[in-house]
Amino acid sequence: MVIQFSGDQIHLQVDNIEDDITWKSAMPFEGSISDEYKLAVNIDYFDRVLKDIIEDNVICKLSDPADAMILHGLGVEKETLLLMPIRLQKEVEHEEE
């Protein structure tokens, strides 16, 4: 799964290469991200983490793209879960010569 932070939106994209299916979604988020960047996380791990959070609202803290994502239910910081993302390089457009 690829997570892209852009402005006040989080864009999610999941690709199933075997079945040639792509799922995309976007949602608003509250926070401050000074730079637009993409992260990749294992969708199975992400699913397991979210299933362990019983609250409707999830807090996700990410201080640096090289650090683990800290996730917990809103108001329930004692049950903190970690997920290690991978920062993806920005796509570089190549000019034809």
Describe, in short, the structure shown:
This protein has 97 residues and is mainly beta. Helix content is 9%, strand content 41%.
How would you characterize this protein structure?
This protein is mainly β. It has one domain: DNA Polymerase III, Chain A, domain 2 (Roll), CATH 3.10.150. It is built from 1 helix and 8 strands, in the order ββββαββββ. It has a 5-stranded antiparallel beta sheet with strand order 3-2-1-4-8, with no helix packed on it. Strands 5-6-7 form a 3-stranded antiparallel beta sheet, with helices on one face. It is globular, with a radius of gyration of 15 Å. The C terminus is likely disordered.
Main traits of this protein?
single chain; 97 residues; mainly beta; DNA Polymerase III, Chain A, domain 2; 3-stranded antiparallel sheet; 1 helix; disordered C terminus
Number of E strands: 8
User: Average pLDDT, to the nearest integer?
Assistant: 77
- Order of helix and strand elements from N to C terminus: EEEEHEEEE
> CATH topology, which one?
DNA Polymerase III, Chain A, domain 2
Q: Could you give a short account of the major beta sheet?
A: 5 strands, antiparallel
Residues in helices, as a percent range: under 10%
Strand proportion: 35-45%
Task: Give the secondary structure arrangement, pairings included.
Blueprint: E1 2-6, E2 9-16, E3 21-28, E4 37-40, H1 43-51, E5 58-61, E6 69-73, E7 81-83, E8 86-88
Antiparallel strand pairs: 1-2, 1-4, 2-3, 4-8, 5-6, 6-7
